[in-house]
Design brief:
Alpha-Beta Plaits, 4-stranded antiparallel β-sheet, subunit c (vma5p) of the yeast v-atpase, domain 2, alpha+beta, about 400 residues, about 15% strand, single chain
């Protein structure tokens, strides 16, 4: 299953060299305060430190390769989170129920993001980056596969229940007859006679009553009585000799009447009711399973996604700003009405940092490659900004 386009609060994760922080006091606090002023943020809570541990760094070759892999994994993780949200929308009736189900580590997703701390107990930072990404990927893709399977079962159960419901609510030409017919409407225990049910359009009911006895030989005279009627049809129960039944059914269909395939047996009504009860029980049981798994998948996938984002920010920061790692990462919630202006303001203030990777002309075109990247320059993304910045939509 695909997932719908992400909608929700937008955040930027911005990484800048520690050297750009205003002088005086703690560099991180000073940069947070400066960014709040630069972006004219309405609340001080709209910018906060985004704590990233220092991971085990391999070679430049490995970092460049991981940069490419992380970009792909980022999109995949976002898709898993999005699919979990779509499943929640599919099993809950209201937006409020969906919102209440989106909990990450017992917190609202925005609260989790703003207070993010790397889970060192689960993901040891002394492990190679490739191993950490592999662990995160295996976890999230396993959850995604399980959720797809359970949701597929739920859709089947839901479809089965809908089919049973349609039988209960349709016209007499198609609906289940379990609550319509009774034992006395049939001739039972006869070696030669059989009762057939026919749904006749109301506009044709007089014609049916007039001619049904002569449609084929051996129809019991005056055997057809009205069992039930709705806005469109009248249900009759003519009785005839069994050997004439195939021809009688054929003649009914020629006249655009609707013979119903229904034979009375002891217990048939109870069996039909049990069929619906089973469909209801199965749908409710699978609904509970898919709700539990969708909530768990959303929570775990969102956490994994944020962990992956932090790795991506770290890798790009090292590639951009060099070793040893000396950068500050912050989480920014730009004003909804001026998201583009926020990024423009950041570019105007920190555009000079582009020299650390690529230099661009006034039109934003790449004009000079960083000699430090050498043979890797051709495969590093040339569309990035003058500094490390990634967005994350809280779906």
């Amino acid at each position: 299953m695909a997932f719908s386009a992400p909608t929700g609060p937008l955040y930027y994760i911005v990484s800048l060299p520690s050297s750009v922080a205003p002088a005086g006091g703690d560099a991180e606090s000073s940069l947070v305060k400066d960014l709040s002023s630069t972006l004219n943020l309405p609340s001080k809570d709209d910018v906060s430190p985004f704590l990233i541990p220092h991971f085990k760094i391999g070679t430049l070759d490995q970092l460049v390769q991981q940069s490419e892999e992380l970009a792909k994994a980022d999109s995949q993780f976002e898709a898993v989170v999005g699919r979990a949200v779509d499943v929640l929308k599919g099993v809950y009736d209201s937006k409020d129920e969906v919102a209440a189900a989106k909990v990450v580590a017992d917190k609202q997703p925005e609260t989790y993001l703003k207070s993010f701390q790397w889970n060192t107990a689960k993901y040891r930072v002394d492990k190679p980056l490739a191993e950490l990404v592999d662990t995160l990927s295996k976890e999230i893709f396993a959850l995604d596969a399980d959720l797809k399977a359970v949701y597929s079962n739920y859709m089947i159960a839901k479809s089965n229940l809908a089919a049973v419901d349609r039988k209960q609510t349709g016209a007499l030409s198609t609906r289940s007859l379990q609550d319509v017919v009774k034992k006395e409407h049939f001739v039972l225990g006869s070696e030669y006679l059989e009762t057939v049910l026919v749904a006749v359009p109301k506009s044709m009911s007089k014609t049916f009553v007039k001619v049904y006895e002569t449609l084929v030989p051996m129809v019991v005279p005056r055997s057809a009585t009205i069992i039930a009627e709705d806005d469109e049809f009248v249900l009759y129960n003519p009785t005839l000799f069994r050997k004439s039944l195939p021809e009688f059914i054929h003649k009914c269909r020629e006249n655009k009447w609707f013979p119903r395939e229904f034979k009375w047996t002891d217990g048939i009504i109870e069996d039909l009711k049990k069929e619906k009860d089973r469909a209801i029980e199965q749908e409710r049981r699978v609904w509970g399973e898919v709700v539990r798994l969708a909530r768990a998948t959303y929570s775990d996938a969102f956490m994994a996604w944020v962990h992956l984002k932090s790795i991506r920010v770290f890798v790009e920061s090292v590639l951009r700003y060099g070793l040893p790692p000396d950068f500050i990462s912050v989480l920014v919630k730009p004003p909804v009405a001026s998201i583009t202006k926020a990024k423009t303001a950041l570019t105007q203030k920190y555009g000079y940092l582009a020299g650390n990777a690529f230099s661009k002309d006034k039109k934003g075109k790449v004009v000079q490659e960083d000699a430090g990247l050498q043979e890797y320059a051709s495969i590093v993304d040339t569309e990035y900004e003058a500094f490390v910045i990634y967005d994350i939509v809280v779906v």
